[in-house]
Design brief:
The protein is mainly β and 130 residues long. It is built from 1 helix and 11 strands; from the N terminus they run E-E-E-E-E-E-E-E-E-H-E-E. It is 4% helix and 49% strand. It starts with a strand and ends with a strand.
Length: 130
């Protein structure tokens, strides 16, 4: 059974940094695309970043240049390094996974859509104070 467990959230001041981790189990990590999404209270779940098994990376425009997605195959973990944080980055951050080869549209249109992913973590809260 696939499990995704996020960690690393917390309270940080604007301009600060946080690194989120998502530990995966029950899957062949190298054969899955991984994504990060976030959801603020009362809002829809929004795309943040995605990393395909072949290495292609996509970012939401709102986080380009500030956030970096990466993966460690030995630790079976995907990371989201978040720098220059802003109060509008406050949200619950979710990790997601989908097996490579799934019918996903190209670019952020596909990889940035929550319904493209089959597995989700429980989320970790990030709060950025002004």
């Amino acid at each position: 059974q696939v499990q995704l467990v996020e960690s690393g959230g917390g309270l940080v001041q604007a301009g600060g940094s946080l690194r989120l981790s998502c530990a995966a189990s029950g899957l062949t990590f190298s054969r899955y695309a991984m994504g990060w999404f976030r959801q603020a209270p009362g809002k829809e779940r929004d795309f943040v970043a995605a990393l395909r098994s072949g290495g292609s990376i996509y970012y939401a425009d709102s986080v380009k240049g500030r956030f970096t997605i990466s993966r460690d195959y030995a630790k079976i973990t995907v990371y989201l390094q978040k720098d220059s944080l802003k109060p509008e980055d406050t949200a619950v951050y979710y990790c997601a996974a989908v097996k490579s080869g799934a019918a996903v549209k190209s670019g952020t249109t596909g990889w940035g859509t929550p319904t493209s992913y089959d597995y989700w973590g429980q989320g970790t809260q990030v709060t950025v104070s002004s």
